[in-house]
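Batch manifest, entry 17 of 40.
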Amino acid sequence: MTRCYHIVIFLELHEVTIEFLRVGFFLVCHVVWCELPFNTAMHRFSPHFLVPMDHAQLAEWFRPTVCLHPKENYWPCSFDDYLAHCTLKRRSTGEVVEEKVTPDILAKYNKDPEDRALCLDCDPAFWTQRPIDVNDVPLYVKVDDTDAEMYWIQYWMFYSYNGALDIGCFSRAQCCPSNKAIIEAGAHQADFEHISIYVYKKTMRIAKLYYSAHGDADGQWFNEDQITLTNSRHPVVYSAYHSHAHYAKAGCVPRIFGCANDFAEDDGPVWESNNLQLLERGDPVWQVYVGGLGFPDSGDVPANKESWTTEPNLSATRWSRLFRYLNLSCCCQPVVEDDAPPVPRISPIFSSSSASSVR
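Output type: structure tokens
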């Protein structure tokens, strides 16, 4: 009789334990689900939120969607491919120092000041070559998780050439009778662009995002609710015609009293890179190079640019604010060459990078 009594008690305790576990599991799931970001859409759920993400997962989760201008002539490319079409020269004399350049060769020139007198010079025939599949072009990614509350993720985009901007006459706006630019300016070899994203660690929501444009001259900060996201997490970046300046919206962006406007469109090719390469300290090795990236001079490797890690606290939108207030942006439509080449079909072969690759 005593044994039966013990069995009954055991079964009852077993049932209570199971029910307790079921209730506990339900409560845990409820709490976790409520704490997850994007809880209004079930397709945004990811098991990655249950454990901390590593750098590769963070890079992929917030990878930007870049909208190129439909008439863009100078497309993104791999920096390694750019090097394969470059010689290394002395800036002042044009004397060739290295006929062939590789990442390892470039990394040798990492001293200051003598190596700052050098610069790369790219074959002009490479400037307009385009990828067979733009999604194979790498994005270079830096991730910093040392802050207690936020991740910092920065994406670098590289273009072999920055096309000229038309200066004057509303940047060749169609409303201009002469339809001619006064001058063309701003063209240079080697164009690195970037965006920086701050993400709350607790909720994995975007706290703020910085779109660079013309260095820091026209860069802007946005909150998550001010930008467009694809798949609920990939920020959309509009790349301006020729300048590749980054904007959160498509359309005309007035600059310098309407005389050097940028134009971004939403009906051009879309770059959603499946080749994310993590930038670690000293990897890839070309980050330590201190000379110029294009002849005669087009700036430094981003790792040497302090402004890329200390973006301004305020958006530099003075020209846009003025012209949007005056409602002049409606007449700022770009006039690009009718014979601009269509969507690309030929390209250099993308070389493998020494950076870590995220597939």
